[in-house]
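HUMAN: Would you supply a protein with fold tokens?

ASSISTANT:
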Amino acid sequence: MDERISNIKPTDLRGILNYVPRFLGQTFIVSLDGSIIESDNLPNIFLDIAVLRSLQINVVIVHGIGKQLSRLANERSIEISNSDGSGPTDEATLNLAIRASSRASHQILEALTQSGLKCAITNSVRSKPIGVIKGIDYLRSGRVDRIDSDFLNHLIKEGIIPIVQPIGFDRNGHTLRINSDLLAIETAFAMKATKSIFLTENDGLEIGGEVVRQLPVEILESKLGELEGAALYSKAMHAVTGVKGGISRVHVLNGNIHDGLISEVFSNDGVGTLVYSNEYRQIRRATRSDLARIYNLTSGSVEKEELAHRNIASIEKDIENFHLYEIDGNLVGCVLISYFDRNPGIAEINALFVQSTHQQQGIGTRLVNFACEAIKESGARQALALSTQSFRFFEDICGFKEANVDALPEARRKAYISEKRNSKILVKEL
């Protein structure tokens, strides 16, 4: 079992409670690869699910059977036609798939029961044959025709976690094998789920040999050709389908990470890959309701003398000129633009701060660029920044140049002298 955890501790109720109002009553689809069902970490996953349920988050479990199917085939010396349901499924493979699905569902049922959770294996998937595509007969492989969401919602209402197998039945009751990644996304569509979460043996989606923690769906879609044949190609492809189809977030993470599910759901950075649409990140103007959040965000940096001291009253005075960088509705960075009535041609970038867990991700640069554009739109042609510890960032990354005290407007010059912080003075022509 992998003992890695994210920066947020599952016991940190303050971190968790930040998300609870947004997730209350929502539905998450948790998809378990066959390998994860046999992982030593499975009981911990279900403890995480118990936490979700206690917070009134609805959960539907979808599972795969790849590992179980391959093992049965080896035990019986049967050559299977396809392992994941995306290719042709012959009769022999279908019979093994039914047995493998029964075994996997029972393992889930047993582990959930041991965790004190009520659950039920369902026959909620109506399917239809894939048929013949480009001359290839897919035999007993199927696609989703309909998910009985009313049935699943009824179980959830009764406090029962539905278990959805990668086996479907057509209108005539004939059995078909369904790819579990496809099934998870189709179930999410039918249940109007806000999250679809894939638990795998991999740490997340890799691009260029590195796991990417946050992926805009447009970027992932453009990279699908490069990922074809990779271990998580199916999940990448279905993640694109899911997000473009209206699922707010699709997560891909390692199911062997202790507390991984909780850490992924209740933190900004998570432990796997998050695929999202454009609204995931945004810079917006602050409002009075953000006062406490800004103060709490920046207070630690004030203590380290990275930022000048600002109390709640001073933040409130400048609130309309604060701009906030949010990820999934959570504040991770801010910047203040200060204008000078007697010197309209210049404006100052103040209170630039990025939460430590999100540094080195280009967020500070985006905030500075945003501020420079806002200053330019106001009619000013010069941006000013004062920094004691981040002046190299302004010079090397943002294109500012060091200047002397004469570059400051008169009122700002007096304040600079009285502060006695000896900040570097940096200027950028716009």
Summary: The chain has two domains: 13-276, 282-429. The chain is about 35% helix and 25% strand. Residues 1-8 have pLDDT under 50 and may be disordered. The longest helix spans residues 91-114.
